[in-house]
């Protein structure tokens, strides 16, 4: 069971809701590990992890939660800067990203046929500019045979997050400074609109709903709403244990119950997303 102990709290409050401390969360690191393994096992065709691809959705929830905590804490201390925000993103992402691209480029130069290498080169550009989700959307379906041997396929989710980070900080900071009483309602409305769009889109073109950011924003927004205190706090460790257990059950049900034939994302993505949200929320149990 993931740690459901209550973290300390900041003294400031957001509206009527107390905001959790934005410090280190060991339970979230545990959730990251829980999410990444099924993704690896899914692509390696190991074990019963036929729905392991849902680990990406868990990462979206985590990302929305953490980035919202960071922005709100900085705004409340009057130290938020877009330049510093994006500078932190660059320092965090670019060294690992470009090291990975360099290794992949060397391997592709040695192993790929010329036509495949040209396609790979375009994918490198897409990953570098954080538009690889659009590139892969135009090329193929995530679950088809050729897609599974594309070494940069995993960068589609990074592109979604970075596109989200272009717009979301601007919206959140404006709301916090100008319409603070409406921030939860606005974020919730955006989440609902994105979710409805995803449900509609997945029935028409699953690849569009899978890859493109407008149909994935709701997953990050769920994490954001948790960070904003939109969900009533859990008051005891017991409540936290129940929430974490239920969240884990929802996530595992998706991991072993979904397959490549599952219509996804759309409403089926609720299973891993709500599972992740419950586990994250469980980390706040135990009091204020």
Features:
288 residues; mainly alpha; two-stranded antiparallel sheet; 12 helices
Write the topology of this structure.
Layout: E1 9-14, E2 17-20, H1 26-44, H2 55-76, H3 82-111, H4 114-128, H5 132-139, H6 145-148, H7 155-178, H8 183-204, H9 206-211, H10 217-227, H11 237-257, H12 270-282
Antiparallel strand pairs: 1-2
Helix pairs in contact: 1-2, 2-7, 2-10, 2-12, 3-4, 4-5, 5-7, 8-10, 10-12, 11-12
Describe this structure as you would to a colleague.
It contains 12 helices and 2 strands; from the N terminus they run E-E-H-H-H-H-H-H-H-H-H-H-H-H. The chain has 288 residues and is mostly helical. The chain has a domain of 199 residues. Strands 1-2 form a two-stranded antiparallel sheet. Strand 1 and strand 2 form a beta hairpin. Helix 4 packs antiparallel against helix 5. The protein is globular, with a radius of gyration of 19 Å. The N terminus is likely disordered.
Characterize this entry briefly.
This protein is mainly alpha-helical and 288 residues long.
């Amino acid at each position: 069971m993931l740690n459901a102990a209550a973290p300390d709290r900041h003294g400031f409050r957001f509206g009527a809701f107390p905001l959790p401390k934005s410090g280190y969360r060991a339970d979230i690191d545990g959730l990251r590990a829980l999410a990444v393994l099924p993704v690896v096992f899914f692509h390696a065709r190991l074990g019963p992890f036929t729905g392991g691809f849902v680990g990406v959705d868990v990462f979206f929830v985590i990302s929305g939660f953490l980035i919202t905590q960071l922005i709100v804490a900085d705004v409340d201390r009057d130290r938020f800067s877009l330049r510093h925000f994006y500078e932190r993103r660059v320092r965090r992402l670019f060294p690992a990203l470009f090291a990975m691209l360099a290794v992949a480029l060397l391997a592709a130069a040695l192993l790929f046929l010329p036509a495949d290498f040209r396609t790979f080169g375009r994918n490198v550009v897409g990953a570098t500019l954080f538009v690889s989700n659009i590139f892969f959307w135009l090329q193929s379906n995530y679950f088809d045979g050729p897609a599974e041997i594309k070494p940069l396929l995993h960068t589609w989710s990074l592109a979604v997050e970075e596109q989200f980070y272009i717009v979301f900080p601007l919206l959140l900071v404006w709301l916090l400074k100008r319409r603070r009483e409406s921030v939860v309602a606005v974020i919730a409305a955006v989440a609902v609109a994105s979710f409805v769009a995803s449900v509609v889109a997945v029935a028409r073109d699953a690849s569009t709903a899978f890859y493109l950011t407008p149909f994935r924003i709701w997953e990050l927004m769920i994490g954001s709403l948790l960070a904003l205190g939109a969900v009533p706090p859990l008051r005891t460790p017991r409540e936290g244990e129940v929430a974490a257990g239920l969240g884990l059950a929802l996530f595992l049900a998706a991991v072993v119950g979904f397959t490549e034939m599952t219509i996804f994302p759309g409403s089926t993505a609720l299973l891993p997303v709500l599972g992740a949200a419950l586990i994250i929320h469980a980390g706040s149990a135990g009091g204020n």
